[in-house]
Amino acid sequence: MPTYMLIMRASEAGLAASKAQDMESVITAMGRYNEAMMDAGVMVGGDGLSDPAEGAVVDFSTPEPSVTPGAYGPVESLFNGYWTIRVDDLDAATDWARRCPLGPGQKLEVRRVTDESDFADFADNEYLQKEAGWREELEGKPAEG
């Protein structure tokens, strides 16, 4: 069954509007959404992201990558967080996206996550074979700091 990523995006105005909302209500609404996906057995994972000012962009345009603090380019469509869900197809993924309790100025981009079938022509590649083992190793392994 394919995995899809629901990518939460917002404009700077949308982000400002969401900060003005009652955070307790936002957490409760998102919690209910997450719980519905867990109960349906479709949720694989997900996380929210900190303010873009806390991050950096690594640019590979030059031989030596440069690091710039802050968001990538103009702040028109921030990547705020994501969910990964395992469902039958794009229609099922967009059905879940429509249920998300987001407000004006926010969007969910729905994209299929690639899997081994996307690289079938390269099945004998050493690193694709290693990746299959790495995925098995990572499943069930707690994250370390």
UniProtKB/TrEMBL annotation:
Family classification: Belongs to the YciI family.
Domain YCII-related positions: 4-115
Domain of life where this protein originates: Bacteria
InterPro entries: Dimeric_a/b-barrel (IPR011008), YCII (IPR005545)
Protein name stated in the entry: YCII-related domain-containing protein
Lineage: Bacteria, Bacillati, Actinomycetota, Actinomycetes, Micrococcales
